């Protein structure tokens, strides 16, 4: 069934996707990124071969931060191109794609034929990324996967004025010391992250519809607040966290057909 393989070696997670000849998403696997990238990639390839059959001769396209360490790759492509390709294939239209990852965020304008028209990327600061939430989850004693629900359940919301993760954490510590409850702090924290994302969207210009990808968009508070701040309904693909690897696998299909 597997005709092409995409591997996305990201900053916080590594993903692998297999597609069939029609580009259908048929196999996937994800786990936290390992600093021993070469070993992790080989483990992935051994796993897909064990579960789906021989992969010799099938194209392997690598993307993400660690793509240059995927020595088995037939081709290496930027994550901007791969995310655009994957989302366009799943949703069937262009628009504005916001990919919120663990340590970077991207806003990509996708044209009517799936081409990348424009983009902006935040990879120098943790604000506007999953790390912004992760850094404070432990401090507030809330599980990362529960942060969105807890934030949405709060009627009150405090303002986190710092867009820097380090200063925001100091601000939160001060609020806790003054008796501010965890729930409104969490809501304010999500709002600060979303405002940073929306500023990126506005810097390139929002072309509807608004689409989301990346692991962070599984957080319901992020989705809701992006809708509130932009006035646009957000659309998610079926596998938002796998769009980079999926797009890479789709690019590999062209090598099969050629």
Could you characterize the architecture of this molecule?
The protein is an alpha/beta fold and about 260 residues long. The protein has a single domain (about 5-125, about 195-255), classed as ATPase, nucleotide binding domain (Nucleotidyltransferase, domain 5, 2-Layer Sandwich), CATH 3.30.420. The chain is built from 8 helices and 10 strands. It has helices at about 35-50, 80-90, 130-140, 145-150, 165-175, 180-205, 220-230, 245-255, and strands at about 5-10, 15-20, 25-30, 60-65, 75, 95-100, 105-110, 115-120, 210-215, 235. The strands form 2 sheets. Strands 3-2-1-4-5 form a 5-stranded mixed β-sheet. It has a 5-stranded mixed β-sheet with strand order 8-7-6-9-10, sandwiched between helices. It is globular and about 60 Å long. It starts with a strand and ends with a helix. About 45% of the residues are buried. The mean pLDDT is about 90.
Helix content: 40-55%
Task: Find the CATH topology.
Answer: Nucleotidyltransferase, domain 5
Determine the CATH superfamily: ATPase, nucleotide binding domain
- From the 3D coordinates, which CATH architecture would you assign? 2-Layer Sandwich
The major sheet is characterized as:
5 strands, mixed
Itemize the secondary structure elements and their pairings.
Layout: E1 4-9, E2 13-19, E3 25-32, H1 37-52, E4 60-63, E5 75-76, H2 79-91, E6 95-100, E7 105-110, E8 116-122, H3 130-140, H4 147-152, H5 165-177, H6 182-204, E9 210-213, H7 220-230, E10 234-235, H8 243-257
Parallel strand pairs: 1-4, 4-5, 6-9, 9-10
Antiparallel strand pairs: 1-2, 2-3, 6-7, 7-8
């Amino acid at each position: 069934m597997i005709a092409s393989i995409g591997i996305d070696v990201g900053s916080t997670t590594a993903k692998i996707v297999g597609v069939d000849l029609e580009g259908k998403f048929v196999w996937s696997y994800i786990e936290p990124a390992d600093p021993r990238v070469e070993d992790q990639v080989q483990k992935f390839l051994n796993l897909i071969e064990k579960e789906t059959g021989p992969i010799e001769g099938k194209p392997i396209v690598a993307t993400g931060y660690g793509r240059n360490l995927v020595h088995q790759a037939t081709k290496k492509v930027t994550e901007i191109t791969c995310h655009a390709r994957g989302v366009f294939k799943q949703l069937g239209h262009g628009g504005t794609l916001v990919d919120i990852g663990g340590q970077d965020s991207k806003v990509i304008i996708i044209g009517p034929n799936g081409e990348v028209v424009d983009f902006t990327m935040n990879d120098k600061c943790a604000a506007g990324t999953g790390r912004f939430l992760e850094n404070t989850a432990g401090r507030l004693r809330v599980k990362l996967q529960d942060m969105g629900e807890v934030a949405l359940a709060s009627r009150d919301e405090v303002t986190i004025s710092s867009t820097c993760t380090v200063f925001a954490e100091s601000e939160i510590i001060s609020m806790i010391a003054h008796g501010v409850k965890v729930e409104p702090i969490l809501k304010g924290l999500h709002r600060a992250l979303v405002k940073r994302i929306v500023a990126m969207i506005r810097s390139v210009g929002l072309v509807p519809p608004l689409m989301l990808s990346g692991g962070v968009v599984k957080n319901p508070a992020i989705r809701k607040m992006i809708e509130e701040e932009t006035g646009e309904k957000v659309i998610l693909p079926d596998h938002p966290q796998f769009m980079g690897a999926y797009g890479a696998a789709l690019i590999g299909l062209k090598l099969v057909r050629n």
